[in-house]
What does this fold into?
Amino acid sequence: MHAYRMKLRGVFLCVLIAVLATGCRTAPPLPPADFSAPGWRVQQGQAVWKPSSSRPELAGDLLLATNANGNFFIQFSKIPFPLVTALISGDQWQIEFGADRFSWHGHGVPPDRFAWFQLPPALLGGTLNGNWHFENVMTNSWRLENSNTGETLEGEFFP
It folds into this structure.
């Protein structure tokens, strides 16, 4: 019985050391986007966002800045408060709801559950992830919808 306890303590100690010695590598928050740098295209407009089929619609101002290399910044706000800010820079992504009340960031492909990461590729005619559907309604108007969650994002950019 004594030998069993010694082995158990040894295993526990090894696991504890492994957990403490290895860190969790998370992506650092992205620096602010510099739209004055070459290659950025900035569009402004208005949008109506319905987060899910059971939540009310929110209307606000929309700012979308895209770069030729695939980076983008999108912000949905009710002046003067940002409601959603999402950006991709290289292989990093970040999204914040409210004034940094809820935020996520990471590397690689961003989660497809957020409409904000689907809009820029949709506007460029790219492939959408998940259950998203995009349609141009009029010249500058569009609609993005997730058929599973009932989330919608409708808007238009000013010419």
